[in-house]
Design a protein that fits this description.
DNA-binding; about 0% strand; elongated; homodimer
DNA sequence: GCTTGTTTAAAACAGTTGTTTAAATGAGCG
DNA sequence: CGCTCATTTAAACAACTGTTTTAAACAAGC
């Protein structure tokens, strides 16, 4: 008997491997992403992996165990392929742009590593048991980092404007920085999952020219930098908007 | 025999009704949104609607016909409940804010009318046959309107800055306006479908205080206005970012 | 009454689902 | 060889799926 569902995957070659377990894992990722957890059938997965249907029970306990393992594997592969840019860049603007590029690249990757975007989306809409830990492991670090970057951007801008930081009185509230961070993620995600919408709304010529990763990351970085740097002046401008417009 | 799947729904009272068909439609919406098209079973729907399983075949042809009708109904209800703000506001900034509010309200509506966001998401990730017409009917008008609003914002800002419009040479390219529009939709959508993520990342206190529709619509409007108004200055700033940072 | 058409009801259908069983295979080893 | 062990196989399982069939209930018109 081989180890069952709960085990890690640290011991095997990780992505090569021609044994049944590896083939099963690879096929499952493909099928789960394409069909979703429900529509995906263990029979289809096993057919694609050229293993017997009983293998999923044998190696992973059940269908859910296989799914769980697939998500873990994909997450690791993705972080290896598109590592988060190293900290230490002195220019927060460039740092932001760099992170957005990474985010978009990860999401847009349509090869085998593009699965996670889809699986993650499915988890958002129909959370399974593993959703919580997934967010903590995968989203939290990036989120915190974005928050800190925006703090730098706002601070730098304020120094530029006022000549000196008004100490004591916080330049910007934490929740504003968080919302900036969430806006970044939201836009990146949309260009992935909303690709079908974009495909219909934007003619192909323009799409191929302006909707690649480079253009989009510049666009998103531009939007968010402008917002963060405009700072308080804009906030005041918006405050006299009625709570319920019209 | 009653009319089958293809028919419209213009003839009945539209939302009242205690007949089997209405109950079926109502129950189906609830169950489809909660479970998704696949996990939802016609038996569960019929149990909730207190009708026999054969009724779905009788009234809607099959499960897919029922789904199709549910989406149509929800779409109409939503547009009735949260109508798009009337055009004619002279201030494009306030107009933008108003539209964003509408968008967010529609998406966040967690009562019976909140289904469409989820159903729409499902359509994005796993388009059925009705996805195309849905985008053309539902997204296109809003999209075009956003584009025009951003054109006004950019133009107004430019007048303010330069004193006069540089005619002939377009202030901003079409695709930039489109990307602004898409960024708006992306952010709004994320605060809906990413609600689960936000719930984990942001402590409850802050969430209740700063993540209501009012706060979020002001935030998104602020971000996009800052971006649109910063205009060319920012664009140049970003252009010297390398194509592949690092 | 009877006939007509519409609506409901229970049961059956054919197919697929995830999962399990029990037998077969094949390598490693004393 | 015989024995052990992990692995693989084909078949069976029970539960559930969307859909259809068949018949009964019902109302309206004559």
């Amino acid at each position: 008997m081989v180890d069952l569902a709960g085990s890690g995957i640290g011991e095997e070659p990780m992505s090569g491997g021609d044994d049944a377990r590896s083939r099963l894992l690879a096929a499952a990722g493909s099928v789960f992403a394409r069909r979703g957890f429900d529509r995906a059938t263990v029979r289809e997965i096993c057919r694609e992996a050229k293993v017997n249907v009983a293998s999923v029970g044998y190696y992973f306990g059940d269908k859910m165990g296989l799914y769980r393992q697939v998500i873990r594997q994909i997450h690791e592969l993705r972080e290896r392929k598109f590592p988060a840019p190293a900290e230490g860049d002195t220019d927060p603007a460039r740092m932001l742009h760099s992170i957005i590029r990474t985010l978009l690249s990860r999401m847009m990757a349509c090869d085998s590593r593009g699965w996670e975007s889809q699986l993650m989306m499915r988890e958002m809409m129909q959370p399974t048991a593993i959703f919580g830990e997934l967010v903590q492991e995968s989203f939290r670090p990036l989120f915190e980092r974005l928050v800190e970057i925006f703090r730098l951007v706002v601070t730098a801008q304020s120094v530029e404007q006022d000549g000196e930081i008004a100490t004591g009185d916080a330049l910007v509230q934490r929740h504003e920085l968080e919302q900036f961070a969430l806006s970044v993620v939201g836009q990146c995600l949309y260009y992935r999952i909303g690709a079908g919408v974009v495909q219909i709304l934007v003619p192909e010529e323009s799409r191929q020219q302006h909707y690649d990763i480079d253009s989009l990351s510049r666009h998103i970085a531009g939007v968010m930098l402008a917002a963060a740097e405009s700072g308080r002046s804009l906030r005041y401008k918006l405050e006299h908007f009625d709570r319920r417009p019209e």
